[in-house]
Amino acid sequence: MKVEANGLSIEVEDAGGPGEPVLLIMGLGGQLIHWPDVFLDALAEAGYRAIRFDNRDAGLSQHLRERGAPNLVAAGLLRLLGAPQHPPYSLSDMARDALGVLDALGVGRAHVLGVSLGGMVAQRIAIAAPERCATLTSIMSSSGARGLPGPRAQVTRAVLAKPHGRSPEAVMRYYLDFFHAIGGPAFRLPEPELRDFIQRSVARSHDPAANLRQMAAVLADTTRARELARVRCPTLVLHGDADPFVRIECGRDTARRIPGARFAAIEGAGHDVAPQAFAQFLPHLLPFLRAHPI
Questions:
Q1: Model confidence pLDDT, tens digit, residues 231-251
Q2: Which of 15, 83, 123, 208 is the residue whose CA sits 20 to 30 A from 73?
Q3: Smallest Cα–Cα separation from 121: which of 148, 93, 79?
Q4: Are 149 and 161 in contact (CB under 8 A)?
Q5: Is the pLDDT assigned to residue 134 strictly greater than 90?
Q6: Alpha carbon 119 to chain centroid distance?
């Protein structure tokens, strides 16, 4: 269903019911369909109400094509120099979108969980609206602090690459190469399943410039690391120890900066989309949520 949130049209799936709400925020270019059934089913069986949505510029939510395609190389250089940036929008804007989703559903307070870029948005929610954030769970994400290791070289090449043409197979090959580059050794999807995952995603939305706009928001968010000291809600940080995109040092740094945060490493996990990888989060997540009821 569509809701109006922060002045945008946002696509939302709400499991409904009386359970405590868990707001699920997907990562760069990710869509609400990327939350695997094993993860959603486990939340439902534990009595939680899963609320998931397409971020702005993703899936069936509103795309901001009029804001153009930023130059990420230039944005990265400005970040290194500590110079002002002017991205099409900010991670704080995306956090306000997420809070607008809760407003539209009449939810005052929720467990907030984000993956990758979604973890950064979740951190922004915990900083800006502590009264709305019962718990924070940041998965394969980062504080954005200066000096943290960046993606491995093959991942950077995959992120900056473009499809060789516009044919469906060229687009498919681009995404296959990207997901192979960011995945870990333990939880790789077989190629037929990965192809199906990509086909379903592209059928809902294929907007390469949108990913650039979201990434520009990440690069411009240079103050979050020091602001994480203001987070007061119970926090869980989960990270794969084989993540070549957002390295495990980024997760450890996030946990170190948030007072009282718990950290757990997931052996063999990368920046994975496989349901088996998401299943590894559950033995940590479910006891954490139960220990901190709303």
A1: 999 999 999 999 999 999 999
A2: 123
A3: 93
A4: no
A5: yes
A6: 5
What is the pLDDT at residue 165?
83
CA dist list (Å): 279 to 76, 159, 163, 234, 251: 34, 26, 31, 21, 19
Which ranges of 32-141 does DSSP label H, i.e. alpha helix? 37-45, 72-81, 91-105, 117-128
Q: Please state which CATH number belongs to domain 2-150+208-291.
A: 3.40.50.1820
Rounded alpha-carbon distances, angstroms, from residue 115 to 35, 142, 212, 267, 270: 10, 10, 18, 17, 12
Say how far apart CA 273 and CA 288 lie, in whole Å.
22
SS3 state at 104? helix
pLDDT tens for 194-209 read 999 999 999 999 898 9
Q: What is the pTM of this model?
A: 0.96
What residues form DSSP beta bridges with 51?
Answer: 14, 23
Dig out the tokens for 99 from the structure: 């809070």
Is residue 154 within a helix (H) or strand (E), and if so which, with residue range? helix 153-160
Query: Residue 262, by phi and psi: left (phi above 0), alpha (psi -120 to 50) or beta?
Result: beta
| Weakest mean pLDDT among 163-172, 255-264, 273-282 | 163-172
